[in-house]
Amino acid sequence: MEEALSNTLILDKIISRFPGNSKDLRKLRLVAKLWDEVVLSLRIPEIRLNLNPLIRVGHGPWRQGPFVSTALSYSSLYHKLARSIHVTLPANETSGPAAVASLLQDIEHFLKYFSHSIQSLSVLGGVNMGSLLHTLFVTCDLPNLRELSITVDDWKVQTSNNFVGIDGSRVPVKIPAQPKLVKIRYIVATKVNYNSACGADEQKFLRNVIAAAPNLEELEIRDGYFFIPGEILGGKLKSFKLNWMIDRISNLDLTSLLNLNKFLEDVRVYLERLELGVDVQVFSRVYNFDQFRDKFHLPGGGLPKLKSFVNGGMRIFKCPIKELEKMEGLKHLNLCEVPDISHRRGSVLINGILKRGHVWRNVTSLRLCGIESSSMLERIGPMFPSLKKLSVTVSEWMRSSYYPDNFLVMVFNTFEGLTGLTHLTVLAPFPLLFSSFLDFLEYLSTFSPEVRHVKLEHSSCTEDSDSTDYKVYRILEVDTVNRGRFYGLVPALRKRNSTEFSGVMFGRHLGLEFRKDSEFVPIF
Questions:
Q1: 279: helix, coil or strand?
Q2: Residue 144 and which of 70, 293, 388, 511 are 20 to 30 A apart at CA?
Q3: Are 88 and 126 in contact (CB under 8 A)?
Q4: What does the alpha-carbon distance between residue 488 and residue 472 come to, in Å, rounded to a whole number?
Q5: What pTM does this model have?
Q6: How far apart are CA 497 and CA 422, in angstroms?
């Protein structure tokens, strides 16, 4: 028995049967000393403190765990299980000066009690909670905090106006140093208003906490307004991600781009990963992208240490091709004009890059959107000779030159000779008929066996909008012959590690997946 209790393989197998169940994990700790050490070394599920009684438990996006009353009971909780904490704050409907004071006191007691254990802290609340967060960081010492995540979601916490916070004039200006804080995420999901003033409280706190984190390595921001002075950083930032929200046209704040230019100039010498994205909630055909002309530019001195560059909005974050070609150390490159929007015509910017023929010798992971011709697809291999992972979005305009039901075969033929490729993702229109889809499956069953992971997603535009619809193969198309042919191909398609199809329905069945390590589940 003692030998069995000391066998880590046995313990790993037992633990795998209790994923994410902290109650059962606590019981396993009592079995033996080794078991206690192993369980405590795991990434323990976060403790969720829901202080918002308006959030309904168990109803979709509102689910945040049971409401915790003001009398928090935590003395019986083992301190090592409090490494990850999530707090849901109440909205203004339940808050007043007295309620806020009581709330702040409860959170302070909890954070102080586990101050040396907390490594990850995430907070969900409404707008104007920044002063409260500032006060918590001033009064609660969190010496081992490594990750901080702030989410502003007025819809989820049911804020109709502004969160009733603390008087900002009485909040101490400086947050104590956070030497172990290396990752900060600030995500705006929804706001009652989308101008720079709404949420200014959080922006101020964000700047203050960044200034207090001299060893910050990762910073992610999703908001419609950006103002972070690069000089407040400690010179350790390696990864920066900005997702700019521009879904409220009337409140678009173009000064964010000018602020971004200055920020990138300040951090350019040590940045290794840069990701720029944009949320556009309007049809691209009617959107005025000319207003962004000459507003954004890459740092004049380049980005000498950059290894990964993602630009998901090249119509906004405009990058001259010659500047891109100077990024000789890149290993990961991801370029799209506007994310998640399919275009009937190809991307002028992406195809302009391919036409130049510049060789990117170090890039091993590549994503390009809006490729408009087979000749452009054929350029990818010679221009990126070290590719291991490739993702392409093919313009539907390209399909008009070919018989539609041979389209995917033509696309895949251009990648047949790419040596070293292990992952391939293609976003393109699927065949019109189910029988033609089977023709493609038959072709795919013998396509480049060294490509171990294949993903295909259907993408098609209508004449009226840039929406992407599901491709539906009606169950009537699946007669006895086609059904037999389909299941006859399954063994060959399971030889890869994974082959996945999304954006497609077979009758009422959504998607399709073949995996080497699991049995295929019949769909007809």
A1: strand
A2: 70
A3: no
A4: 22
A5: 0.84
A6: 10
By C-alpha distance, which of 401, 471, 476 is closest to 432?
471
Helix (H) or strand (E) holding 502, with range, is strand 498-506
Coil, strand or helix at 305: coil
Tokens of 280: 């556009």
Q: Helix or strand or coil: residue 342?
A: coil
Structure tokens that stand for 80 in this block: 């090592």
Q: Rounded CA gap, 423 and 441, in Å?
A: 17
Instruction: Please give the sequence-ordered ranges of beta strands (E in DSSP) within 262-398, or none if there are none.
Output: 273-279, 308-311, 332-335, 365-371, 389-394
Tell me whether residue 264 is exposed, middle or buried, using C-beta atoms within 10 angstroms of its C-beta: 0 to 12, 13 to 18, 19 or more: buried
One-letter amino acid at 90 equals: P
Task: Give 150-191 pLDDT, tens digit per residue.
Answer: 998 887 776 555 444 445 445 556 899 999 999 999 999 887
Cα torsion 37, 43, 45, 50 to 10°: value is 110
Among 43, 52, 48, which Cα is nearest to 19's?
A: 43
- Contacts (Cβ under 8 Å, ≥6 apart) of 21: none
Q: How far apart are CA 218 and CA 8, in angstroms?
A: 34
Quote the CA–CA distance of 117 and 94 in Å, as a whole number. Answer: 30
**Mean pLDDT in residue range 427-447:** 93
Q: DSSP letter at 67? A: B
Query: DSSP states of 478-499 as a string?
Result: --HHHHHHHHHHHHHHTTSSEE
